[in-house]
Amino acid sequence: MDFELNDDQKAIREMARKFAETEIAPHADRWDEEHFFPRDVILKMGELGFFGCIIPEEYGGTNSGFLAMTLITEEISRASSSLRVAFNMQSCGTAYSIYRYGTEELRRRYIEPLISGKWVGCFGITEPNAGSDVLAMKTTALDKGDHFLVNGSKTWITNAHVAEVCLLYAYHDREAGSKGMSAFVVDLKDSVGVTTRPLDKLGTRSSPTGELIFEDVRVPKGNVLGQLGDGVKIVFSSLNQTRLSCAAGAVGLAQACLDASIQYCNEREQFGQAIGNFQMNQEMIANMAVEIEAARLLTYRAAYQKDQGQLGNTLETSYAKYFAGEVVARAAHSAMKILGAYGYSTEYPVARYYRDAVLYQIVEGTANIQKTIIALDRLGIRKANR
Ligand code: GRA
């Protein structure tokens, strides 16, 4: 067991930290307030190779691995949790699934534009009546000979109204149950019949969210990902990679909460001394520090396993995603208590951290879904890793 990062990983983390501190952190509050999605920053991250960590060099990636991607994600989220979501959409949620399951033609057409940031990606799983219950989705993609005809609506889709490419999940055959779901790569920019509607939300506001409505949208036959009927396999394996991004994002955001708390504890004086001298604040700092470290180790372990080829490590990924989601919520609450009115004020980033933190108990499988996966596995009822 080696708990040290190698020199390449340390250099990658350093580069990501510098980038996040200079290019993202100074603007993150304003972007959030203005609901602004900084496409130029997505392009810059693409140029630096951030989105290509888990993509081989022959497709334009850096092949630096899941742990490298985790380190970068953590640093981005420390500056802006919104841009962490954007990161996930360019890499794990789209490009990586296209690499893993796509034909050579799909790989060549979509991976480079996504990981370079030229095209913005999204994925369409959730529907108005299918959130945790993925298989309840109603969107259909009916076989019309040389193309599929897609009808249905997706909601809470990150990047819905700014994306060029969508990895869409739909039933090509409702009667066939889980074998009747397929995954499709949809060119949103070239498709007729797609409408979008933006949705507002409590936090993560510089990551656009919306509805995607498909009315008789033609998708070429060649844009099926994997085999027809592979949708369930692809959706769950894809979620297993995107949940790692969530875990890393939660760790990064929790670290931002701790950083702000430590700085304030050392600067702020009350009753003639720095408030870090008060044991009630010390307890919060200690709890945050140890919980973040534990969440980080769970996250790095899940990333390391994926780098060793264990891509089906649903159990360990759920451990990381669940725990990091709880930790960031507690860390944001503690930061708010330590900073008091300065935490509640929108002039300081802690209010944003607090609003953004709750997301990690909701997205990519709620905390309850992660606990279900873990409990069923531990009880011997349903094996998580497959
Ligand atoms: O036996 P079968 O042929 O019926 O197939 C079953 C099973 O073998 C079928 O799915 C197959 N399957 C898998 N196949 C390959 C299940 N897991 C896997 C796998 N890992 N690999 C149904 O299986 P089941 O066990 O009966 O599933 P279920 O009870 O219907 O659901 C299980 C569960 C609740 C865990 C699942 O539905 C789930 O994970 N739900 C959560 C959905 C979720 O995470 N949504 C996220 C939406 S995207 C999002 O939040 C974007 C955020 C952006 C960001 O912040 O980054």
Task: Report on the architecture of this protein.
Helix 4 (66-79) packs antiparallel against helix 5 (81-101), helix 7 (231-267) runs parallel beside helix 9 (314-339) and helix 9 (314-339) packs antiparallel against helix 11 (349-357). This protein has helices at 7-24, 28-33, 39-47, 66-79, 81-101, 104-115, 231-267, 279-307, 314-339, 341-344, 349-357, 367-378, and strands at residues 121-124, 140-143, 147-158, 165-171, 181-187, 194-199, 209-220, 224-225, 269-270, 273-274. Helices cover 51% and strands 15% of the residues. The strands form three sheets. The protein has a four-stranded mixed beta sheet. The protein has a four-stranded antiparallel beta sheet with strand order 2-3-7-6, with helices on one face. It is globular and about 80 Å long. It is α+β, with helices and mostly antiparallel strands and 386 residues long. The model has no long low-confidence stretch (mean pLDDT 97). Residues 85, 88, 125-126, 132, 134-135, 158, 178, 232-233, 236-237, 239, 242, 245-246, 314, 363-365, 369, 373, 382, 386 line the site of glutaryl-coenzyme A (GRA).
Shape: globular
Unreliable spans are none
What about the largest sheet? 4 strands, mixed
Radius of gyration, in Å, reads 21 Å
Total beta strand runs = 10
Each distinct ligand:
glutaryl-coenzyme A
Average pLDDT for all residues: 97
End-to-end span in angstroms?
24 Å
Helix content: 40-55%
| Elements, N to C (H/E) | HHHHHHEEEEEEEEHEEHHHHH
Strand content: 15-25%
Q: What would you call the structural class?
A: alpha+beta
* Tally of alpha and pi helices: 12
List the strand order in the largest sheet.
Answer: 1-4-5-8
